[in-house]
């Protein structure tokens, strides 16, 4: 492990940068100065971080702009009472380098990284917006399926046992093992707290009080989420992004950019794929809450479900294609599947492998949904529905679908089964709606 | 990671010790001098390594004895053409310390460890013999079930997600990630080579020629072994011994000692349990080859099958008992299973967890059997059967059982189903026997 990654080391050089500090610091970096253009005194600098964890500055000069992200030694959303290691900036940088190599143009280019300051400067993404906001505004992104499926297939395949030797894989796992504080956030907030009494939980009350109580009492659900948690902790299948919701994706009409991989570690692939699919389904079920007139967003909603189907279908197609053409890893050695009969049998096994991965995806998509409605961190898809009862109706539908996906995972054998269930639950009315 | 563990580092100080070097070296260690007693010049030193990888010296003084194990920078069995990192001595030492803490008196006490020399001095086990030899001689070990089940339950449970926090677990995984060269031996020799043409493979020819060819052509088997290989590489469930056959166990009438954990890493628990069970089944099916008169070893063979049953049953009982009383890990958080209903549901889930672990155990036991008959490293259970045809009959029975255990794993739902199948195949005659 890189010692710089260890919490504590290098902290003597760490300081939280204010605007003036940042200007001086950047002025000392020739490549950044050249990229921005103009005199440092004339750069515009604004702090825009609306995430939960870090400082984010936008810096603009006469010829270009950059985004500068600095980790704080605590969770920004909560404050200094919830410390969080600066080392996450190191892991985020490592992951960005990995992703840029495998999915170029789908992640922002890194211009500068400073380990001790826990700081990374990246190209400024303009005119991109956070995808979640675009979806609330019913904007379609025609490139999204193509781009995100490429990102997923390539970043996951090339860090898996199908591409790496076992030795390379173990080294990769060790490189990210120190990022456990970020994993712990996921373990607690996604896989534990929504299913028990926890101070930080919240939900749309009183409408969802009974549902939240039912989730806290549902032991079948507790077994299912515990199995998913064990899988999250103990299945280093690939280097995953670890937080791939629609708030970690920036979009423009012609471009998709994945950002913020600070939760990266070697984990189950289905967690990333499930994050994308779960968040698209939430956008779909929140959509009714953003209607100004009935049916106004119907064709957008249909596009969303096509997108859900496309994400899985295209991911699976590209992943299997890579497996056919780029299998250099220690898993499924080609020498055991020689000849035509071997090739046919291996192809059948690829499909079986994808079927197991799809099951994981369905389970994790459900877990990601439930945590956004009953846990600490909510999303604006639902939060921006001003009418609380209407919001609760949308959320209740999402919870009903997620519960079914988690408890009856094997019944969802295709992505079509998922979108069908989503379409059905879209018209369901919870009791409190009457 | 401990830098001393890295292949290459410290090698400047490494030298292969001859008898005279060792005497001088040990004479400089006061604790060893005190333990041995007498003048260093009077110590008896003999090199006794009959394993595949290392030098092993027995040193005796007037008041005590020690065993000294030194790793060679290559595979002893093959020679300098097959290099193997000295760092394995570091991992073996780490694993010994872990095991001694959790299963005291079931592993030899470490008296001295020297990282740069890749050397460990341990208490001398006398009058113990290698268990495999004892079983060939039809000796019963009344303490074995009790001891090995304690060793397995405690070393596995306390390094699992049921006992450790996710952060502790990730640190442990990283600590052993560098031992990949030893894992690679297993990946190749157990999970790949026996199923393809490989120069190092051998088997009892010509009797098993057709069977070996059938195993190389059986694509269902190739899928099954590839799934097991993927599980071996990608399931860091616990710190496993990694080579727990009956040649890694030393026994006396009243004592069981597990030795040689140089293959240790975080892997699937079923690999260790399956190693024990697979090797006991091989001892059972080899037994007919060691008979001087028909039925002579019948009651010993019955004891062997009782032992197989006892190993799983007692392991499972102890593991579940630890889970009930010592669950401090991040897996299956107790807060999700509160109250009487929660306790009942969690207990059912424990049984489901053990059922999944048993499936892994059956699969790995089969893999360990096949590699000993069709791969590079054979075992003396079979090799010491002088009559080649008789040996081949015993081996063919073991292969038939192992193939069934690997391909029809779900049909073996209890350990009784395994011993029943073993008993049935004991009386099966392969075609070439007639």
From TrEMBL, chains A, B:
It comes from the Bacteria. One of its GO terms (biological process) is methionine biosynthetic process. Keywords: ATP-binding, Kinase, Nucleotide-binding, Transferase. GO terms for molecular function: ATP binding; S-methyl-5-thioribose kinase activity. The keyword Disulfide bond does not apply. Residues 45-304 form the Aminoglycoside phosphotransferase domain. InterPro entries: Aminoglycoside_PTrfase, Kinase-like_dom_sf, Methylthioribose_kinase. Its EC number is 2.7.1.100. It holds the Pfam family APH. It is an enzyme of class 2 (transferase). Homodimer. Belongs to the methylthioribose kinase family. PANTHER family: METHYLTHIORIBOSE KINASE. This is S-methyl-5-thioribose kinase. It comes from Bradyrhizobium macuxiense.
């Amino acid at each position: 492990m890189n010692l710089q990654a260890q919490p504590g080391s290098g902290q003597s050089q760490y300081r939280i940068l204010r605007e003036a500090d940042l200007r001086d610091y950047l002025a000392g970096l020739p490549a950044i100065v050249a990229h921005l253009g103009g005199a440092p005194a004339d750069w515009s600098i604004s702090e825009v971080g609306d995430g939960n964890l870090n400082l984010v500055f936008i810096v603009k000069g006469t010829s270009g702009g950059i985004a500068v992200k600095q980790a704080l030694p605590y969770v920004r959303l909560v404050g200094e009472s919830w410390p969080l290691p600066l080392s996450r900036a190191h892991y985020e940088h490592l992951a960005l380098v990995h992703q840029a190599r495998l999915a170029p143009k789908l992640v922002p280019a890194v211009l500068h990284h400073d380990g001790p300051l826990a700081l990374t400067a990246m190209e400024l993404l303009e005119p991109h917006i956070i995808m979640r906001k675009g979806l609330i505004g019913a904007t379609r992104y025609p490139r999204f399926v193509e781009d995100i499926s490429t990102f997923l297939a390539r970043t996951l395949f090339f860090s898996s046992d199908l591409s790496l030797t076992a030795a390379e894989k173990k080294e990769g796992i060790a490189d990210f093992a120190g990022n456990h504080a970020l994993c712990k956030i996921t373990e607690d907030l996604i896989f534990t707290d929504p299913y028990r009494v926890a101070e930080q939980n919240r939900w749309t009350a009183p409408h969802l009080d009974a549902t939240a109580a039912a989730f806290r009492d549902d032991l079948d659900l507790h077994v299912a989420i515990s199995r998913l948690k064990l899988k999250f902790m103990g299945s280093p299948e690939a280097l995953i992004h670890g937080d791939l919701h629609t708030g970690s994706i920036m979009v423009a009409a012609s471009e998709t950019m994945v950002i913020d991989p600070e939760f990266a570690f070697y984990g189950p692939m289905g967690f990333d794929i499930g994050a994308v699919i779960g968040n698209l389904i939430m956008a779909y079920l929140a959509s009714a809450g953003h209607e100004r007139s009935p049916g106004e967003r119907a064709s957008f909603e249909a596009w969303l479900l096509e997108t859900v189907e496309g994400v899985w279908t295209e991911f699976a197609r590209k992943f299997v294609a890579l497996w056919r053409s780029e299998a250099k890893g220690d898993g499924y050695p080609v020498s055991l599947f020689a000849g035509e009969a071997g090739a046919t049998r291996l192809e059948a096994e690829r499909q079986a492998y994808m079927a197991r991965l799809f099951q994981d995806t369905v389970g994790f998509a459900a877990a990601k949904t439930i945590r956004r409605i009953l846990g600490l961190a909510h999303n604006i898809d639902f939060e921006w529905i001003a009418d609380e009862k209407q919001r609760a109706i949308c959320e209740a539908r999402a919870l009903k679908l997620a519960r079914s996906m988690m408890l009856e995972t094997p019944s969802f054998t295709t992505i079509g089964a998922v979108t069908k269930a989503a379409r059905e639950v879209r018209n369901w009315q919870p009791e409190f709606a009457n």
